[in-house]
Amino acid sequence: MDHFLYRDGALYAEDVPVAEIAAAVGTPFYVYSTATLLRHFRLFDEALDGMDHLVCYAMKAASNQAILKTLAQAGAGMDVVSEGEYRRARAAGVSGDKIVFSGVGKTAGEIRTALVGGVRQFNVESEPEMEVINAVAEELGKVTPITIRVNPDVDAKTHAKIATGKSENKFGIPIARARDVYAHAATLPGLKVIGIDVHIGSQLTQLDPFEQAYVKVAELTEQLRADGHEISRLDLGGGLGIPYTRSNDAPPLPTDYGALVKRTLGHLGCEIEIEPGRLIAGNAGIMVSKVIYVKNGEGRDFLIVDGAMNDLVRPAMYEAHHDIIPVIEPDVGVEEQPYDIVGPVCESGDTFAKQRDMPPLAAGDLIAFRSAGAYGAVMSSEYNSRPLIPEVLVHGDQFAVIRPRPTFDEMINRDTIPEWL
Ligand code: LLP
To answer: Residue 374 maps to which CATH number?
Structure first.
């Protein structure tokens, strides 16, 4: 459920007409709903009720500080994967003891920044990385909590580019080698082994792969405890998928997921961390764009819109589907027609949808790309020298620009010209 609904024939973001935001900030832009962000966070939080737990929002999904602050004030921790994310979370007021540092290749500099600023734990991804974390911690006279990310070799049954839990993927250490790696970790004075981390992929639409992974984590917990390690925290990653269409095949709900966690891991008495990104932010944001031209091609009509693959890359990158709806609600019974919906960027890949049935649209009409809150703005670029589009946050009947559109000069003046030119 989200808070982008038609009311009196027009699309609203909570209590604000989307067209009013468009008039104020220009198109294209992203708009997020505070109520949807909070609702999704609370669903997870409540799903783990009864277990000691922390929901650490995977801020890679949408990392604007206003979003982070909204979630942090509701009690969320953060999962970060770079120094930039760490600093952004801190700037948004998140304390170090609520920040989990994940990521496949943390550099010594990143590790140092987090150790100095405070960090809840590092999720270690490899043995060489573990050595570096230990070395930096020792150099700073600290002992840092760590979990080790294990790769459980399960098929997440999701898009190949976002599956991470098969043995051929670059993530974590093979679960079969875990006991050796933990034994070595226990000898390193800068590290305190506290738990296990696992994340098998993103946009999972079934619980079965989670179950397979968590059963393996439960077994490993018992083994490691028998080996003498104190395993008190399990980080279960993110990955629960969202409905990208309004059909019936909706992914499982956070409550089902929570029940699975309790069933597979509850008996171990560990503190549970989860790192959802998409399910918190995905349906809490839309991208609004304007039709520039309707072009009648050979055998097909194109809607050429002012948003493009640089603003929302998911369709080009993962063949992802986003529902696209007009901001003015179509009349009941209006006859739809198929359009190819494309951006102005000079590549055929700049196509949001092919032969998508839409009510008749004309130049100047506004459309909304639904489910664009996660991996939308954060993956945007300035390709074709198109300035990054603004982000807006709605709260009830208020809205605020939370990242303004840069001017062309701001974008251009970031370049510096060498002396010899
Ligand atoms: N934890 C770790 C260690 C991760 O790598 C990820 C996502 C998450 C948590 C959050 O997963 P989520 O709950 O959002 O599924 N750009 C792609 C998605 C990449 C996901 C990368 N890792 C997309 O647009 O579909």
So the answer is: 2.40.37.10
Instruction: Provide CB contacts within 8 A for 410, sequence distance 6+.
Output: 387
Measured by CA distance, the residue closest to atom 7 of ligand 1 is 202
CA dihedral 371, 372, 374, 378 (to 10 degrees): 180
Mean pLDDT of 142-153: 97
Whole-angstrom distance, CA of residue 100 vs CA of residue 123:
7
The pTM assigned to this predicted structure is: 0.97
Q: Give the range of the structural domain holding residue 122, as residue numbers without chain letter.
A: 34-280
Best of 203, 278, 312, 371 to mutate for ligand 1, by most ligand atoms within 8 A of CB?
278
CA atoms within 13 A on the CB side of 413: 5
Let me know if residue 420 belongs to a domain: no
Number of domains, the chain: 2
Instruction: Indicate which CATH number applies to the domain containing 67.
Output: 3.20.20.10
CA 374 / ligand 1 centre spacing (Å): 9
Asked whether residue 402 is domain-assigned, the answer is yes
Q: What is the pLDDT of residue 336?
A: 96
Q: Does one domain contain both 335 and 273?
A: no
Q: Whose CA is nearest to atom 19 of ligand 1?
A: 162
Q: Encode pLDDT of 247-289 as tens digits.
A: 667 899 999 999 999 999 999 999 999 999 999 999 999 999 9
Q: How far is the CA of 292 from the centre of ligand 1 (A)?
A: 33
- Ligand 1 proximity of 149 Cβ (cutoff 6 Å): no
